[in-house]
């Protein structure tokens, strides 16, 4: 929810960050001036701010960067994760005064102004992070320029009137409206149906590099529309919102599983696989957001440093296998977060379906989890070979 004026001032205008519990932090306008409202969350990545703000999973959220110095490499046309900036607002401590990268064609501030993204700088981001870590993610608002001088009670009223993240279905805001196709860039396996719940381009590129003709479908796609492309498998992407508010996507996934199509989901797709299998989901106190999250792959015993962006998680027993409440056979938790023992992956043992809660494409970020795209390709190839042998 943003109301912004796209203008760059020589001297930054005043700005204030207001949290729903009444906490206030005064700073300077960064980006467009005006008002923006959303859930305030923090991201712990030391780099990759361009990838962060263009990640569709951040729709509806005001993102605070815990790294103090932001913007030094500017912005370019190659490192975007999607077609636009999705953050509802942006919070930084010390924005760079100069751009120092040969690939840059604009400063971060200029792009924020151009796209109407209201931000704030010059506040104690460490203090805000510690507060959210203790009290949990909460609604907030950035008020800059003339809006910074609004009565404090009026600012807080606007913040508390904004919708909470729980219960929101935001897929329609970020999904494509028409199908697109990216041809395979390796030996072709077949058509892959990707339900776009907020997919990133790096994910599409990784799937194409594994031999799939990647059909990115709108989030409104039906099972008949998926069947029409004769897919060898189905993929659910990352995305914003509450998985408990996505019943249609869960029912669609159950139809996919009933068709015995191989399935791979990441992030939001992991939560929706959990629901399709009959598991519950819940909201994390402050979520996992950053490119430095340790996860244990229980299959190999290997610890991966991974990229995360999620505020919800799946409820499931961490040890052993269990029966899917919805009748899809045995299931196990395949990956576990080592910071707080959150479910970070699911694997169905009797059907070809698995998912992870993090981002294996990891741009920008570590590449420890990139093997998951190879694992998906192997699952699909094995499934096709089994069908041919029948």
UniProtKB/TrEMBL annotation:
Pathway: Amino-acid biosynthesis; L-arginine biosynthesis; carbamoyl phosphate from bicarbonate: step 1/1; Pyrimidine metabolism; UMP biosynthesis via de novo pathway; (S)-dihydroorotate from bicarbonate: step 1/3. GO terms for biological process: 'de novo' pyrimidine nucleobase biosynthetic process; 'de novo' UMP biosynthetic process; glutamine metabolic process; L-arginine biosynthetic process. L-glutamine binds at residues 57, 239, 241, 268, 271, 309, 311-312. Pfam families: CPSase_sm_chain (PF00988), GATase (PF00117). PROSITE patterns: GATASE_TYPE_1 (PS51273). It catalyses: L-glutamine + H2O = L-glutamate + NH4(+); hydrogencarbonate + L-glutamine + 2 ATP + H2O = carbamoyl phosphate + L-glutamate + 2 ADP + phosphate + 2 H(+). Its EC number is 6.3.5.5. InterPro entries: Anth_synth/Amidotransfase, CarbamoylP_synth_ssu, CarbamoylP_synth_ssu_N, CarbP_synth_ssu_N_sf, Class_I_gatase-like, CPSase_GATase1, GATASE. It comes from the Bacteria. Residues 13-143 form the Carbamoyl-phosphate synthase small subunit N-terminal domain. Composed of two chains; the small (or glutamine) chain promotes the hydrolysis of glutamine to ammonia, which is used by the large (or ammonia) chain to synthesize carbamoyl phosphate. Tetramer of heterodimers (alpha,beta)4. Belongs to the CarA family. This is Carbamoyl phosphate synthase small chain. It comes from Microbacterium ginsengiterrae. The gene is carA.
